[in-house]
């Protein structure tokens, strides 16, 4: 039995390029599906976030017309898991050496805060140095952008990864007015972003780094992380 850390954003709004705000929060399936698989496999799961803030649910992920017929089950599981755990651990207090794997789920929050969170950056650099399994799904890979060293080099430059594609952002209706688009930014920083068909499950593994493209990739990514953990 190992410990796995799920690192959430603390953001509840996404400021758009025109100054308007878009409500956000954690995406239920991206938190619930991996959590359920990790716990069923016998692992202990902790939650952490910047400042220990409990991010709200992204209500879009509770809408069956957007998130699918199974979304209510994901919402119930996520809300129960978070309630039973209690307040997330403050990210700056986390010792990543205590964990065999870390997971960054999405919702738009990571493009608001995690992409530039220095505590997360230090944690991810340490995790990568020690070969800890690092998983990220949908907008979660934005958090990888925080892993910048003292010289400004990005730890994950050159690595293969999946993430929510620019096409998916356009189809979702949030590309226009976005301050920046995730897949494009990852490529700009030097990632080998590998996009598949919109909203179809896709996971990519590059060593200890495992990533998923969209909400449908959440369960398959968790399975891949469990396989990597052996």
Automatic annotation (TrEMBL):
Annotated DJ-1/PfpI domain residues: 30-223
UniProt GO MF annotations: glyoxalase III activity; peptidase activity
Chain spans, region Disordered: 192-222
GO cellular component, one term: cytoplasm
Keywords from the UniProt entry: Hydrolase, Lyase, Protease, Stress response
GO biological process: methylglyoxal catabolic process to D-lactate via S-lactoyl-glutathione; proteolysis
Pfam assignment, any one: DJ-1_PfpI
The family this protein is said to belong to: Belongs to the peptidase C56 family. HSP31-like subfamily.
PANTHER family, alphabetized: GLUTATHIONE-INDEPENDENT GLYOXALASE HSP31-RELATED, PROTEIN/NUCLEIC ACID DEGLYCASE DJ-1-RELATED
Name of the protein in question: Putative intracellular protease/amidase
